Amino acid sequence: MPIPASGDPDMQESGSTQVVDNITLQLIRGSLRSARLESELIIERTAMSAFIREKKDYTVSFLDGLGREIYGETLGSDIVGCIWGYYPPETICPDDLYWYNDPYISEGSITHTPDMVFIAPVFYEGDLVAYCHSFGHFWDLGGARPGSIGPANTDIFHDGTLVPPIKIVDQGKLNDEAYRIILRNSRYPDLLEGDSRALMAAAQRAHDRVLEMFGRFGKKTMLAAFRQDQEETARFIRQRTLESIPEGQYAVRDYLDHDGVGDEWHSFHVNLSRKGDHISIDATESDDQSPGSINFIASPGSVSAFFGQYFHQYDTSLLMNDGLLASIDEVKLRPGSILKPNWPAALGCRAHTFTKLKNAVRAVVAKANGGDTMAAMAVYVIAYWRMMYPETAESLLCTDGIAVGHGARPMADGLDAIYSRHNENYPAEFMDMEYPLRMERYAINPNSGGPGKYRGGCGVIRDVRLLAPEGTFGLRVENNRFPAWGVAGGMAGGTSRVLLNPGTPNEKEVRAFSDDNVWQHGDLVSICTAGGGGWGDPLEREISSVERDVRGGFVTVESAGRDYGVVVDDNTMLVDTRATEALRQDIRRVRGTLKLFHRFIYFDDESEELEWVRRRFPR
Question: Which of 102, 182, 484, 558 is the most exposed, fewest CB within 10 Å of its CB?
Fold first, then answer.
């Protein structure tokens, strides 16, 4: 979308001449952080659906008058651009509020339909100086099945109601007609209304706090501070990128188990090239878009921001803003590919792809610096527990986000049992109180963390029993076929698995990425999630760390010997030091040379693994 001229005549001048002192800059940064926290707490405390109020899948961000991020997590998305396509800036008024969720109209700024966006423009002294953005993952927007998105969806209309950019509040007055239409298209309109009003209130509170900041610090100072923060982040990100990636080409490929419809694997390819100080990404060799719902609408901004987000970890005092895009100069994507699908491809389960795309960023950096980066993380899991009462026709839904393991780091083990970012896992007590479900087991999945000098984070085992008369369930579980890769000698994480009624005569393995699975009263589903990749040679892991992992249930006795060369007594759980030294020597003698990456085999180049995959999993 084209960037409009700012409504503020002083913006360009103030942005180029005024320098804000560091104390004032820090006060403004702190005020933005405080405003974000306050606005997000409004969402958490007033939203109705569990995925927002309990799991905390929401965020608030701030953008300048040109739509560039000031602070937040839009990560390179052109959040405001699609609004300008319908409502030019000169038509935007104070007390307006805009709403949309259409991934195609927004060109990937929103990546699937449950993610709703509300935008509040901020006017000061008659000029449009900023925008405030609230975002949340909504419970149900219609579509093919309760929960809207799902593994069996094959076009965007299966994913639920599409809301193009609309003015839901016109100068303070709610557009009740449009609101009633949207609510009518949800199976749970009370939850949709509660969540949408929470998001509207959060955007308004963020608006009010930004307006207070302009009154406190003045317009020129605020606009100059926005610019300085963006430029400071951009300078750091650019410098760190150039320091980390020497001239050359670095190609990586990652794989997705299947698309929920067929059984063939899919892959995408990322080639980073640096010539002089020009850095480009070419992803045009990625597979064609899939018939299922794993397609992801990437954009040049989002791909650049993924790299910027990686380098931002080295100075978190800087705000996450438009400066993240400074890492990459050019991004090439192919229309009709899995990273740039054509309308009306389904997008609901795009997290499989974008999570592995973030892993690909780390893989590129690893190739450039010899492995000094975090290993791959597993893709976070969602289960759609659907409960039915045939006598009353009542239908309930529990959208359950489930934790996985993250990749090991060059200085520490990976994080165990993490869903994503600040999101949380439902506790057993919550599910027992809110739904006719009983969580009977919630434990670490042993051996799921990839072996390494630093172990990959472990996934979990989550056992859920149905107490309603009957129902169905959908599973968005990845890493069943392709585990998270290890790096610098570290090994891949463990894979995922789903069982129905394990340990009984009726035990059955369930396709990990599937929908419309039937369960009856008393049935139990056990989901074992995948772990992150390991970092470094497993034989260099401290023996005491392996012993502690065995005692804690993260690693079994068998894995301690096989993967780490540590001999642990089954009964005493104590290490036999002499036997361990001998076993490690034996393993070193026969295992061969370690290479940069490990998944099924050790490999240095993506073509080595591709050849192996094609032989093992022909398609």
Answer: 558
